[in-house]
């Protein structure tokens, strides 16, 4: 990994998005053109632009990632991320961050685990 990329991740964690964009751009420049590493950085940059509300720049980055992954058939994770954001920008789906991460049949509040100790405790209450 590139030092600039790692610094950009730290800036994102700290909430300093402008510095993170600068570091990501320098990491992209150092990675070389049309490499897997460059497209991984561009995917992160696209997500950052989307979170900052800069939709047009975000779309540009995701379109670059999509074109590269179509040609090289690598980076399936970045392709999925880019496709999800591009679909959200087109209005086909909700933004990826807003989607729930649980299965559809799971309850919102998990039920307590009823093992032998729980059942014995509950039966003692009724005596």
Per-chain topology:
Blueprint: H1 3-14, H2 17-31, H3 36-52, H4 55-72, H5 76-90, H6 116-125
> What assembly state would you assign to the polypeptide chains in this entry?
single chain
Identify low-pLDDT runs: none
The global form is: elongated
Characterize the largest beta sheet: strand count, sense, and whether it forms a barrel.
none
Amino- and carboxy-terminal Cα gap? 64 Å
- Total strand segments: 0
Detailed description of the structure:
- It is a single chain.
- By secondary structure, the protein is an all-alpha fold.
- It is built from six helices and no strands.
- The chain has helices spanning 3-14, 17-31, 36-52, 55-72, 76-90, 116-125.
- α3 (36-52) runs parallel beside α5 (76-90).
- The mean pLDDT is 80.
Short summary:
This protein has helices at residues 3-14, 17-31, 36-52, 55-72, 76-90, 116-125. It is mainly α and 127 residues long.
Tags for this model:
mainly alpha, 127 residues, 6 helices
